[in-house]
Amino acid sequence: MEIQFTSILPEAATPADADLLCYLGSTTFAQTFGYLFDAPTLAQYLAKTFKSAKLRRSLQNPENKYWIAYAEGKAMGYAKLKLGSESSYSKASGQVQLQKIYLLKEYLHKGFGQQLLDLRLREAESKGSDLMWLHVFQENEPAAQFYLRNSFRVLGPASFTIGQQALQYYAMGRDLHPRG
């Protein structure tokens, strides 16, 4: 069935949404990155990272801002900003980290990621942030190109380990108040 939604309705998430965020996070991570890991490593990572209690605590932190994206009443993904999160690659004041834009597979490449990013950029600007930064997996070329098209630049390399596997990322950033 072809999805024909044209826009999303993001809603601020609350601690009551922890279970839904666990589902969205674990499902989208497995859909996107599951091929990189053996089944036990993936299961262990998902169980550790997407626990309801852990997400509930994160949702209670005022520096963490989550939005769940809905279309026609169905949750399709979410975004997370971490306010006051400074990148070691920049000395800009007022930094904000875009920690996640996760969409279920059937909603990818339909413009919803762009809508979520645009809304999060406006949110960061309204908070007075000067730089939005993020990490993107180096092998995820479509995601890296998406951010480059949206005026992000590569700030430097980053590495994360899941199980025994070291994964290489780009740290990317976008000036929110560019000097003209």
UniProtKB/TrEMBL annotation:
Pfam families: Acetyltransf_1
Molecular function (Gene Ontology), one example: acyltransferase activity, transferring groups other than amino-acyl groups
Keywords: Acyltransferase, Transferase
PROSITE patterns (alphabetical): GNAT
Domain N-acetyltransferase: 8-177
Transcription as UniProt keyword: no
Protein name: Acetyltransferase (GNAT) domain-containing protein
The species this protein was found in: Pontibacter ummariensis
